[in-house]
Design goal:
The chain is built from 6 helices and no strands. The protein has one domain.
Amino acid sequence: MKKGLRDYTLDFLVIVAGITVSLYAGSRLELRQQRQEEVRILENLRDNLIADTISIGQELSVLNNCQRRYGYLLSNSLVESIDSVAIVFSSLLIYTTNEIRESAYEEMKHSGKMGIIENKELLNNIIRHYESSKLLVDEYNSIDKHFILNRMIPFIESSFPWYSSASFYDPAELPEILQFLQQSAMRNLVQSNLIFKTNTIVTYHQYVESAQSIITMIEAELEKR
């Protein structure tokens, strides 16, 4: 039986409807997969940032102790016991070693998935955090490490007679050790060390503040999913 125009039209409409339904289903599936990938990326970013705030908090505790002890030395307020002097002295050789976790951000950046984050304010904050705040932390860590390894330690090794010597812990040596710590060359290095540590502390606090703000925004986005 030959088909008429009406039959061909109906067949065409059925085909179009089938294609439309198929495209809609495919679009919905793709959208759902994108949302799932966005959630995965945001969760990984959040976890990295939480880990950073914890490790930086621990590092800040060490830096704050260093800052306090340098202040004792510079103000001639050291408790005159060899144990307290040893604690202060050891803090002079500490440098920051904290490494920012950026695996989730690097994955997002290099896989071309930045656009998958719908909240553009959040995305801009994430980019600014890693491309600015993180780099600033890295820079101050590098400066601090370079100062300790290339200036402080060489000076101690060459000028401090008690370096790596058991006599450092001899109470009879305390007056001479205290006298050495008050020499201008030593005090200048301690002052520089204090400045670097103080700048690092400020930078760390700024990083943590930025990280906590992003964590809050990420949590808000995840609640919508």
